[in-house]
Amino acid sequence: xxxxxxxxxxxxASALVYTMTSNKQLLTTITLLLSxxxxxxxxxxxxxxxxxxxxxxxxxxxxxxxxxxxxxxxxCRLNIGLPGQGAVFPINDFQFRLCKGAxxxxxxxxxxxxDGPRPHLSSGxxxxxxxxxxxxxxxxxxxxxPLGRGSWELIWRADSLCGFLIxxxxxxxxxxxxxxxxxxxxxxxxITFPVWSKNGLEDQQAIQKNMQQKYKQFxxxxxxxxxxxxxxxxxxxxxxxxxxxxxxxxxxxxxKAYLREDVPRKExxxxxxxxxxxxKTGTIWAKTGSFNGDRNTLLGSAVISSNxxxxxxxxxxxxxx
Length: 321
Hints:
alpha+beta, two-stranded antiparallel ribbon, elongated, disordered C terminus
């Protein structure tokens, strides 16, 4: 490539364009180098720690969603214990409000997002105001459950269909209804509820409905072709029906890969803002050690019975007609 001198930026640009277009080999080389550089950046990013900002991007709507959730008041029933692992006892009438503002670290429990390895995915910690302590009935009568130092956060990744509302509390003593039943251990206790954007959930529900219809269609096709196979005496037609049954079974398995159990039904969610749908059933868990990969212990489930004093229909229940 010949060297050139230019007195102005315009002449420089013109000379550069001329040189590049007249030398296809140079243009190809530059394109290749740019591609390699982009590839190297993507490969390097794949090996970066996931807690670095930008490696796992935050949802651009996180601040707006946080504003919608703030000031929500929930009344919950805490079901302590797991099915099949002994008696489950309920803690009823636990009511709390999601407030704005973090408070001091001494006034709140640590949260897995804000105080964990990926704080950039969190809305940041906010206070929880306990309105009514939960209670349960034991042999000694009514017992209260003093969950204190409450804080909450909203976590939402940019590439995720839903986020999570995480509420943290501290319990100063073990709580159990009887000596051999389930126990709510002292320490930090967390309640997690999945949260969906309204439009995102409607889209996923429509996709799931379509996939379920296709799955049922292919399932019926398998049964129909196998029935014809068993009734047919002609070997060629028999082989054709068998082939059709196999193909329908393959199609059914392909559709099954798109069926998701984590997409809630309409009756499983409630509105918490103009654009958000909160799943009414969440999980109760405790953390052993730090938030950097140490063990979580599942303790039970939480069911929201009212939002802002307005009762919500329980998940799985149907209105009497």
